[in-house]
Amino acid sequence: MTYQSFQQLNAPLISQLKTHYHFDFNMVVSSGHYDLTQFPCIVAFEAGRIVGVLIYRTDTDILEIISLDSFRENMGVGSRLIQHVENIAQTLNIQTIQVITTNENIKALYFYQKNGYRMSNIRPNAVDIARHIKPSIPLIGDNGIPIKDEIQFTKYF
Question: Where does the N-acetyltransferase domain start and stop, copy by copy (predicted)?
Answer without folding.
Answer: 1-140
